[in-house]
Amino acid sequence: MNSKPEVMPSSPRRPRERDCQTTAETALGLTLPHRRMEDWRWTDLRQLIDRPYPPRIAIEAAKKDIDSLMKASPFAKVAKARLVFVNGTFDKARSKVTGLDVSDTMPSVDGDEPVLAMNVAFASGGVILKIAGTADSPIELLHIATDATPRTIAIRNRIEVAPGASATILETHLGVGDYLSNSVMSIDIGEGARLDRVKVDVESAQAVHLAHAQVTLEAKAILRDFTFTTGARLNRQNGTYTFAGENADARISGSYLLKGRQHADTKLVIDHAVPHCTSREVFKCVLDEHARGIFQGKVIVRPGAQKTDGKQSSHA
β-pairing, 309-315 with 278-287? Predict the structure, then answer.
């Protein structure tokens, strides 16, 4: 470890890095995570977010720009039902919600993790989607950001899968220009229910993508969760998966396809709070040029969680 020369008492103290507020922090009005924080040692947002991203800037987007981005979704021809979010706001007029139980209400969120704290401070919208029975076709949650002044876009959604129900969720994030996207997704999977979730990040090459998924599985619930990351210059995704009922099964996987100086970091916490549950984490990365990919996985086995079966692997 490199040591620094000691400053004599008579000399004025030079401010340390964490004492000086960056322009991004000034614009946001908060302190960003930095490398001195254990969970952020590989992704120092104080250094990597090098420009202001003021929150809650109203954007009047042109119809042609929105339509163009909607057509760019990889699931444009697959999803029969769609919830569209434009610059952090639910756009009911462009959504296809017939037959869906959707409440245009921003859900609450628990936790003091930095991405969550930023979302609580800046989120301007979100929905609660309740699924009962079996969804006949995939449901897409499409988040788009139009080209405009640099700004923070924050949104918070919740999905509740009723006991015995099943659905496929397609979550897409894409955009144009320079912006910071902060997305929080809360998911409850009821007893005996199943959720297949595919998340695709094709954000702008200038964008910053911060996200946190909070997932709870009840007894005998099944989760199949895959994330594909190829967009954004800076990407940090957190996931907290909690087994709340016995005999639940979660398979969480992801893939990076990065180039240039892209930076992507995924941190997952799998909490086996009850016995007889199974978890698998598999992440595979392809990196070119100076791109950087990080995977951090943590499996917690609580006292009494007998016959827990948890495995994780990462390949690049």
Answer: parallel
